[in-house]
């Protein structure tokens, strides 16, 4: 069962098809919760892709 995290209070609009690898922050400005949520999604996507590759190849 997949949950849509692009709803309140998360608003995670990360899309793996965009192939973003990092989020840059502006010095002197506060970090927003959405940026932190997107970083979590990027890391989760990278770990899932690596694990799927390892299990797929039987390594």
Question: What does this 3D model show about the protein?
Answer:
Pfam families: DUF4815. It comes from marine metagenome. This is DUF4815 domain-containing protein. Helix content is about 40%, strand content about 0%. The longest helix has 25 residues, at about 35-55. It is mainly α.
Main β sheet profile: none
Question: Structural class of the secondary elements?
Answer: mainly alpha
Q: Whole-Å distance between the termini?
A: 28 Å
Task: Spell out the helices and strands N to C.
Answer: H
Low-pLDDT regions:
none
Number of helix segments?
1
Total strand count, please?
Answer: 0
* Average predicted confidence as pLDDT: 86
Radius of gyration, in angstroms, nearest whole number: 14 Å
The coarse silhouette is: extended
- Which range does the strand content fall in? under 5%
List keywords for this structure.
extended; 59 residues; 1 helix; mainly alpha; 42% helix
Task: Briefly summarize what is shown.
Helix content is 42%, strand content 0%. It is mainly alpha-helical and 59 residues long.
Could you outline the blueprint of secondary structure elements for this entry?
Layout: H1 33-57
